[in-house]
What we know:
- The protein has eight helices and eight strands; from the N terminus they run E-H-E-H-E-H-E-H-E-E-H-E-H-E-H-H.
- It is an alpha/beta fold and 215 residues long.
- It has one domain: TIM Barrel (Alpha-Beta Barrel).
- The longest helix has 14 residues.
Amino acid sequence: MTKVSPSILSADFANLERDCKMVMDKGADMLHIDVMDGVFVPNISIGIPVVKSLRKKSDAFFDVHLMIIKPHLYAEQFCKAGADLVSFHIESESDVQETIDIIKNCGKKAGIVIKPATPAEAVFPYLDQLDLVLVMSVEPGFGGQSFMESALPKLKAISEEAAKRGLSDLYIEVDGGINETTGRQCAQAGANLLVAGSYVFGAQDVAAAIESLKI
Length: 215
Ligand code: DX5
Ligand code: ZN
């Protein structure tokens, strides 16, 4: 069954503790924490101090998505602040292997993220070392955008490659425009971890929305 990682970008930042607890109580498997630096993406969200503060209030698994230009400079700080998994963009300016090593040396899980224009094959050289591949199904930077179907063949290519290599524990995550319909398409294409921000936090019945993504 797919797992669900609600993006707290759509939470009420003045009530983050409350909203994080709420989605976990209503069936979320983990929390997706979007970090934006205003350079790699044209938006600024939250950073290390917020992760550190949230860690004191939550036992949830923190799935931290770095949308920053030089992730190797900050990955260790995010690990120490309480991230359980740190993913970073292959399109960033950091050396990919060095950044994976930094995260792994902290004893945390590591993931690579690809933007809509980046082919699935870009992650293949690193696949055996990774805990997660995140396929963006929108241009990173903002919640509430429409799902791009171009993510589907990429999810399929990654899941087939992972199966070929026997990587049964690899998280194949998709992020952007996920709802019941697009979530199902992604699950059919091979995703096993669905990020959803506006769909979950905007739902009348949050538990039902999360349940609808467990496919
Ligand atoms: C976009 C972020 C997403 C975003 C998803 O840059 O990485 O995690 O919050 O939001 P929805 O689910 O509303 O598209
Ligand atoms: Zn994200």
